[in-house]
């Protein structure tokens, strides 16, 4: 999967489009490759193809990059949610694809799919967005 653009300017739209290519891939707890993803594994895998290191777990992913206001979310931004019954931190992540939509690996549906941020379920659980645009060296 040589879709990476290491050494080139970060392109959030390209990242979002690449992530969209995994729609239908099965959810797998702990999954980090195209045979099966969990939410943070999908994010880590997609960004790695662009030479960008992203931590493995949601809580750590929520700490990197720059905070983004909801009105300023762009394709390629990480969108975080709290899907737990307790606590107030991030427990789920997706990749913004534009027009109030994001792609993610939810265990409830069993496959990578697209959702809208404005839907009741996801809108009520939104906790923030981050922009990760730095490139790492090999």
How far from one another are the termini? 17 Å
Within CATH, the superfamily carries the name: endopeptidase domain like (from Nostoc punctiforme)
The count of domains is 1
Q: Architecture, according to CATH?
A: Alpha-Beta Complex
The count of β-strands is: 8
Q: Indicate the structural class.
A: alpha+beta
Strand portion, in percent? 15-25%
Give the C-alpha Rg.
Answer: 14 Å
Mean pLDDT: 89
Order of helix and strand elements from N to C terminus: HEEHHEEEEEHE
Please count the helical segments: 4
Tell me the name of the CATH class. Alpha Beta
Spatial strand sequence of the major β-sheet:
3-8-4-5-6-7
Main beta sheet strand tally, sense and closure:
6 strands, antiparallel
Unreliable sequence segments = 1-7
Q: Approximately how much helix is present in the residues? A: 10-25%
3D shape? globular
CATH topology: endopeptidase fold (from Nostoc punctiforme)
Verbal overview:
The chain is globular, with a radius of gyration of 14 Å. Strands 3-8-4-5-6-7 form a six-stranded antiparallel beta sheet. The chain has a two-stranded antiparallel ribbon with strand order 1-2. Helix content is 21%, strand content 23%. The protein is built from four helices and eight strands. It has one domain: endopeptidase domain like (from Nostoc punctiforme) (endopeptidase fold (from Nostoc punctiforme), Alpha-Beta Complex). The model is unreliable at 1-7 (pLDDT under 50).
Record keyword descriptors for this entry.
138 residues, endopeptidase fold (from Nostoc punctiforme), 8 strands, 23% strand, 4 helices, two-stranded antiparallel ribbon, alpha+beta, disordered N terminus
